[in-house]
Amino acid sequence: MNHNFRNYPVFSNDTHHEDVAPEEEVSVACDYFDGVFKYINQMLMEEDHLENKPCMFQDCSALQATEKSFHDVLVQNYPPPPYQNSAFLDQNADNLNSNLTGTCSSHGSNSSTAVNTSVESNWVRHQHLVGPFFGQSSLFDHHFQSDLQYCGSSSNYYNVVDGLLRSPVTPVHVFDSANESQFAWKNHLPEERSNKQLADYAEESDSEQTELYDKVLLCPSINPGLHDDQSAQKEARNESEPNGQAQGSKRGKDRWGCSKKQGNARELVDLRGLLTLCAQAVACFDSRTANELLKRIRQHCSSHGDGTERMAHYFSNALEARLAGTGTELYAAFAARRISAAEMLKAHRAYVTACPFQRMSNIFANKSIAKLAMGVTRLHIVDFGILYGFQWPCIMQGLSLRPGGPPKLRITGIDFPQTGFRPAERVEETGLRLANYCKRFNIPFEYNAIAKKWDTIQLDDIRIDRDEMLIVNCLYRLRNVLDETVLANNPRDAVLNLVRRMNPDMFMHGVAHGSYNGPYFGPRFREAQHHFSALFDMFDANMGRKDEDRLMFEREVFGREAMNVIACEVSERVERPETYKQWQARNRKAGFRQLPLDRDIMEEVRTKVKQHYHKDFVVGEDSNWMLQGWKGRVMYALSNWKPV
């Protein structure tokens, strides 16, 4: 590549937050993150075919369950439905189909490109389709006994079907996300066939794209003439302001997360308590009580309400599906529902605008890579869960400005296969996009795309060159890999062992911190309720309630995840987060040692969060993990590792 490259002076691209006085500002280095917003905007403007593409966040397990359901119909292998209530299903089918979630999971952002492709469609069909609750699996008795222990006296249920706090009911512990700041950092609970070919993308005119790519990628402070508009973050914040209502308003609920019914007679309804009671009834197979409680919950929840009401809306959908024994089928059905990539990119843009988690993760990961790779001439990044490539334009821009010129960059993009005859298509298209970025920045670039189940990847697929510096990156996607509670040959250990055999110079590991991966439904439901309450509360404080992108993200990401956690079991339950302490033990067992946190990077992250985001976003550290959270509750954790 012989493109001429111009050197630009480097300045900070930080803009002052309106709530922070200038004297409180701390100058921090440019992180090039505005390039991510421009990157997403450019994808939406340039690529009309995204409207006809399914979103890329689908997981292969949903595909497997869908294929298995079709197989069972063809061979007339119908599982017995001992717990189904046909009347209940008929009454609620429309509601379930209209409200349940799509096929996206967003908390990592990565990318891929097809220059050298090693693609394999190698998903495995399940041996059985889980029936109602737990189907006929061998784990049924184990779960059943635990859920019976979780059940209380049935008499309590019939006294609380009105769901009012004034009702004579047994006291229920109510989670208070608004006051969970006492949660201590160190004291926590342990598409079908495509109609467009890749050649179409490669035929784009370089001359027509020159200025556009500059605007997409280059930092505004480096090229102020190219960016006359305001910060993308501020624009999105202003657009999402509710009419006549300040952000974070708690009108419509009290401090305990209870819904206040508007009107002359105002009722105080404990939605979280009702959900807990309903989960108990579902666990005990008490369909009458569960239906009564669901009816009461639906009178006070809404997908357009406050955070608690929205959480209750999606949780009641999931409980309804579990009660009907259709959780797996409904969750898998949304894999076939074509949510366009353009819609999900808009929703993802809203998410990264309102919340600092992705930006801070990119800063932590990219600057750690940049410091380690300083002076190297060949850099190989293996990215597990590469998705659309949102992480890498930032580091490409930084590498292009390195004294002495950029290194030769090779990226191996790994992700789960997509449905249809071209399982690696989206991964490859993202790689072509990244290749064009490297061409603009005169960075020698090579790409290898892999689309297969992660635990089946072999070392030869990675094509390691020992003359390169090797970095392995995996941010927030290992939670979708099954663990030892499902398969004796633990897929998570298989992935970690593969990483260790690569012998990388650094393993960048980001985890979604959560305790709702237990085998027993009752405790898992409680932990999921705590976690999702914090997520919906965070959105309510930072995004407008009428924001359509917010609605899309909540439905297709939060709602889908809640459906999987609550209504699916065994191998169909793919949302399996663990705490960072659990991942720390796994990594050490796999033969990794933890690297200390970089103090300069940590200070930069803290400063940016303080200056540009809501005061309730928190950054902390524990045991060489960088922790990110909301109101004291840990949501994500990142750490650097190296094989022993």
List keywords for this structure.
single chain; 644 residues; ten-stranded mixed β-sheet; two-stranded antiparallel sheet; 22 helices
Please outline what is shown here.
The protein is of the alpha/beta class and 644 residues long.
Percent of sequence in beta strands: 5-15%
What is the end-to-end distance? Answer: 38 Å
Q: What's the shape?
A: globular
Overall pLDDT: 73
* DSSP helix fraction: 40-55%
Radius of gyration: 24 Å
The assigned structural class equals alpha/beta
Report the uncertain regions. Answer: 1-28, 78-145, 152-184, 186-210, 212-218, 220-237, 239-252, 261-266
Largest sheet: 10 strands, mixed
Number of helices: 22
- The quaternary state of the protein chains shown equals single chain
Number of strands: 12
Task: Give your account of this protein's structure.
- Residues 227-259 are annotated as: Disordered.
- Residues 429-461 are annotated as: Leucine repeat II (LRII).
- It comes from Ilex paraguariensis.
- By secondary structure, this protein is of the alpha/beta class.
- It has 22 helices and 12 strands.
- It has helices at residues 34-46, 60-74, 86-99, 140-150, 154-158, 198-202, 206-217, 232-239, 271-283, 287-298, 307-324, 327-336, 341-354, 357-372, 392-400, 425-440, 459-462, 491-502, 521-542, 548-567, 580-589, 599-612, and strands at 116-117, 259-260, 268-269, 378-384, 408-415, 445-451, 469-475, 506-512, 592-594, 617-622, 625-630, 633-643.
- The strands form 2 sheets. Strands 1, 4, 5, 6, 7, 8, 9, 10, 11 and 12 form a 10-stranded mixed beta sheet that branches. The chain has a two-stranded antiparallel ribbon with strand order 2-3.
- Strand 2 (259-260) and strand 3 (268-269) form a beta hairpin.
- Helix 9 packs parallel to helix 11 (307-324) and helix 13 packs across helix 20 (548-567).
- The radius of gyration is 24 Å and the shape is globular.
- The chain starts with 33 loop residues before the first helix and ends with a strand.
